[in-house]
């Protein structure tokens, strides 16, 4: 009796799907399940970031938003006949190649972007260009699944600091700014990474994009709303930082810090989001019941026909998707095994006019060189008593957990008292940073990377060089060199480092000789 009662319900559910869509939806489901399974590690890393990082908590609702966007188009989509499309395999190849580059170089953003876009490419390949046009915005919104935004933190810190100091002066509070540090009568304030406002900017861009699509038809109004969605959280974050300083002047730093955590968190920016929607509401020009797409118009449009000449059967296209994905996984596995041979022992050489001495730092500074196969740390002093700290790291390969350009690696070690203060005066081929600890100690550090015949400071170029090596199975080591000096009453950091560089051999040859490279 129970089986007979359930059978009509299952039939009724199947009848709700147009016959022309049943097989393509099954094929798409198989393609997505396969992509999720093959790139499960990347999806697990993304989900962990969505859950653990407050910058990306908003992404937890993005899958539901995409599902809602598709559901809103469902009855119009039923009027379009999906058709598998061979060129979709080229899109998948591009997506998986991006994933491959990220996977072999330890660039999580690239590998995660490839994992996400592989689903978009599979959708286009299985359902064809007409359906892809109808689903253009939901497919585009899928890019918000990729956790990006932390790269903006340094720039946002500086912008917030400039807004804060302007408002501080305007409110009559005497203050001095030095990089991201603001010195006031009641204490020294830092616009730290957590105060950059990146989490609210990233969330607001995702929200603004959705609202601009759902609530507006005019592209001009959409563009203006997006400008507001970007500018408003940046300005609001500056007001937030200024408010903390302003309250601290009368109520004390501890009270201001507590008030900041209670009110100036999501409560404050919830009000900012409400203000954005309130300002934009009166200009909404899309009707509540207005359709997002016209299924009949898309089904009858002539322009997709020029692309549909390359349509094919769904099952062979699905097999092509699987073959491409497995090929890329095999390529990645082989490429990850490419590593340069390492010498058993290396050592820093003598430098004319300088003597190796025991470290005597005013405040401990130790750059992170996680995963380096060889790491050398030493201090050199000259006859004038000037001291230079040298950090040398040699890597057989660059990948996640052992890359010179990874987050928190290099001259500015994470989870320490050291903070980035400003750029140091430029030196050819190097990136220079002025660092500060506890508002008292300052030092200058210059960083070079060496790979093959190239020496420089471009992290992007280093990553590209390592990607190329692994793609072509050509193992070459990577070197990171950091030289640093304290800025004290007895020595000027930049002058000390310039004197040290003049005493060494040309840096490319000097770095290669330490690694015992020909």
From TrEMBL:
EC code: 3.4.22.-
Domain Methanolan biosynthesis EpsI: start-end pairs: 318-506
Species whose genome carries this gene: Aurantiacibacter gilvus
Protein name according to UniProt: Exosortase A
GO molecular function terms attached to this record: hydrolase activity
Membrane topology according to the record: Multi-pass membrane protein
Signal peptide start-end: none
InterPro entries the record matches: EpsH-like, Exo/Archaeosortase_dom, Exosortase, Exosortase-1, Methanolan_biosynth_EpsI
UniProt cross-references to Pfam families, sorted A to Z: DUF3485, Exosortase_EpsH
Localization annotation: Cell membrane
